[in-house]
Design a protein that fits this description.
Helix content of chain A: 25-40%
InterPro entries (chains A, B): aa-tRNA-synth_II (IPR006195), aa-tRNA-synth_II/BPL/LPL (IPR045864), His-tRNA-ligase (IPR015807), HisRS-like_core (IPR041715), HisRS/HisZ (IPR004516)
CATH topology of the largest domain in chain A: BirA Bifunctional Protein, domain 2
Subunit structure (chains A, B): Homodimer.
Strand order of the largest sheet of chain A: 1-5-6-11-10-9-7-8
Number of domains of chain A: 2
Largest interface: A-B, 105 and 105 residues
Keywords (chains A, B): ATP-binding, Ligase, Nucleotide-binding, Protein biosynthesis
CATH superfamily of the largest domain in chain A: Bira Bifunctional Protein, Domain 2
CATH architecture of the largest domain in chain A: 2-Layer Sandwich
CATH class of the largest domain in chain A: Alpha Beta
Distance between the termini of chain A: 44 Å
Oligomer: homodimer
Family (chains A, B): Belongs to the class-II aminoacyl-tRNA synthetase family.
GO biological process, one term (chains A, B): histidyl-tRNA aminoacylation
Chain lengths: ~425, ~425
């Protein structure tokens, strides 16, 4: 017989944690709705072919595949060499592939510029490790049909607002543009066909540092003169002076003669985000010319969410103008921002509902059931109510209730007047 | 390439429908929490062996099985005759099997009497038909560890309260007890080993009527004298006089000498539910001695939720004291009530958030992005805000916005003062 544990790499969510997660999700949902986004939902499974069309990158290898229904042993043996013969469906590994499919399917019913919220679990059969689960929640917002920087500005402002509403003030967004990377690598002299590999190496800058990057590029056999130019550039003293955000700082962080159009695009996003912050505070953006983001589908602006309290990213996203065209046969601009909900949930302190009272009603065993339910109903005027039969260890019962988040208690014996119970605070 | 439609038998949920569903779920969740239930969550997948342990009845055959990761063609051929060799996991087909597993796994961290809320999707590969989907949401509440009628009373009161909060006043609960059915079938003279089959037939009473029942029992070859006794009983004139709920009516609906203990149990639940309703209104219960409920695991009270506006059930449940013992090796009493969320969602009229304003901000194309975002942020003081670039068909844009649930609009040109836009109602 199976164990009573959840499946490997997955977890049960107990009441206190579930309540906290639902509160966080309600805050995020409320903020995103306020910014004009609309929530949608797709099935958790998508067709096998769609999940393995090359868009999902490494995640495709981590997907859970669902066996076709009604296969007999003969059909299974015949299909043993062909995954698509055995599996017609799979659990989604992200919310982006389903969104692109959704948009292609439902476009006629959606506004010309569609701002989507998606909140839901995804599945990846990764090696289990502390704090990482094979089922986890993603919170994505995406804007389809807007090729202007208005889309990037709305996404970043909404994401920072959601984070502030969760109590994480002072977050910032690292920003770059894939077109900046393309131009830089071209300027250094890397050939077009070696650039994807060079980007994979550059993406490790935070982990292995400039020396590691240069060494790895040499190992890769990248064009030697380009590696030299890149090395010299990395060693410029001013490279790491990223603040404050603005045109001078962006130009300073880049090799000379950066394209005006892309610089203006990044500067404009900064001004808009400042306007959304609604104050004269510093613009919460940091230009990072070496931000890469792993997915192959990004085509323009890319960003990552940072907070001073943690070294890892709390979310990120970017523009992927080419993806929907693969499903729809017509190009539709798109840009998205994903919050790392599991990381946020780990980071935020447990908080109970402010001001919400929760009452334990401890009753003698002989209180008639109808009386008991009448007392419970009356107490519910004051907060949520849990019934507990009186036990010998009364103090233990109250302690346990307090640990479960209850803030008050009352006691009742048979024959007490309904509505007249004294509510006492739980110490 | 795959189509852009959702997988067969599943659906996308578009913004208006998603918003409505989330509002309904928030109401249900809020009411259940108020009644002292706590929400939990389990992974959507469970181990294959657990999903196929005989508890799920016919649903086991409808389950989606997940292919083990890392099987090569040889392993697939070797396992072709053994489903468990190919599949280690499956999508859950209900929330009851996962709850029993959860309770067995986490019991040490749960209160002695544990009141669970579970809200989430389940999957069944049924033949697709109108209004039935292969992925659908269930809303369950269950009480573990309470063998008294207090549990049934709390479940029924909470469920009726949730329904009333959703705007469905006037719902009622059909109630019976598996022990009533056992005793009746024994009294008629059915042998113990034929009773499960007889119950399956009786469960069709609503569909095929008394004549159909008797005919089917004869076809089954059930004990002839017992079928005669049952037939005579079904034709008693007073059989269908179910109201008002109370001892006289329960005894009247049953053959003579019904066991006092079970009658008192059902009467007590009625009194408690009346107390929970908090008024002198009629008790919202209907005793139905032929209510069966399909699942094999029920051991005591069973119930179904009815509303005058529809002929089908809106939910139901019952006591299943034997199930957790199968996982835990120790008997734990349990009783549950499941709301048919999809049916509720179909039944309830679309309603927008009362009083919540939603504003479309129509802007000229040349409004600088930072100005535009500043206007949006200022307008968000008054409600949610969607940006729309001005188009030639201005009226069409407003109509479309109204259809999307927006209630007001404003227009803005370059250079307008922030915070000074006029908000006009959308006709």
């Amino acid at each position: 017989m199976a164990t009573v544990n959840p499946p490997r790499g997955m977890r049960d969510i107990l009441p206190a944690d579930k309540a906290r997660r639902e509160r966080l999700l309600a805050v995020i949902r409320e903020r995103y709705l306020a910014h004009g986004f609309d929530e949608i939902e797709t099935p958790v499974v998508e067709e096998y072919d769609r999940l393995h069309a090359g868009i999902g990158g490494d995640n495709e290898k981590l997907s859970y595949n669902i066996l076709r229904r009604g296969l007999d042993a003969e059909a299974i043996r015949a299909g043993a060499d062909d995954p698509a013969a055995l599996s017609d469906l799979g659990l989604r590994y992200d919310l982006t592939v389903p969104l692109a499919r959704f948009y292609a399917s439902n476009r006629g019913q959606l506004p010309a510029v569609f701002r989507a919220i998606q909140i839901g679990p995804v599945w990846r059969a990764e090696r289990p490790q502390k704090g990482r689960y094979r089922q986890f929640v993603q919170c994505d917002i995406d804007i389809m049909g807007d090729d202007s920087a208005r889309a990037e500005a709305e996404l970043i402002v909404a994401s920072l607002d959601a984070l502030a509403a969760l109590g994480l003030e002072g977050a910032s967004v690292r920003i770059n543009d894939r077109r900046v990377l393309d131009w830089m690598l071209d300027a250094f002299g890397f050939a077009a066909d070696e650039r994807p590999g060079v980007l994979i190496t550059i993406d490790k800058l935070d982990k292995i540092g400039p020396d590691g990057i240069v060494a790895e590029l040499r190992e890769r056999g990248a064009t030697a003169s380009a590696v030299e130019a890149f090395d010299a550039y990395l060693r410029r003293p001013q490279t790491m002076e990223y603040n404050p955000y603005g045109e001078a700082q962006i130009r300073n962080a880049l090799p000379e003669n950066a394209p005006d159009e892309i610089v203006a695009h990044l500067v404009g996003i900064g001004e808009a985000v400042a306007a959304g912050a609604g104050s004269d505070a510093e613009i919460p953006l940091v230009f990072d010319p070496f931000l890469v983001r792993g997915m192959g589908y990004y085509t323009g602006t890319i960003f990552e969410l940072a907070h001073p309290s943690v070294s890892y990213s709390l979310g990120g996203g970017g523009r992927y103008d080419g993806m929907i065209g693969r499903f729809l046969g017509q190009q539709i601009p798109a840009v998205g921002f994903s919050l790392g909900f599991e990381r946020l949930a780990d980071l935020l302190e447990p908080q109970s509902d402010a001001g919400a009272q929760a009452i334990v009603l401890v009753h003698d065993a002989d209180v008639p059931l109808a009386e008991l339910i009448a007392h419970k109903t009356a107490l519910m005027e004051h907060g949520r109510v849990r019934l507990e039969r009186r036990v010998k260890n009364f103090k233990g019962l109250l302690d346990r209730s307090a640990a479960d988040g209850y803030t008050a208690f009352a006691t009742v014996s048979a024959g007490a007047a309904v509505g007249a119970l004294e509510i006492k605070p739980l110490a």
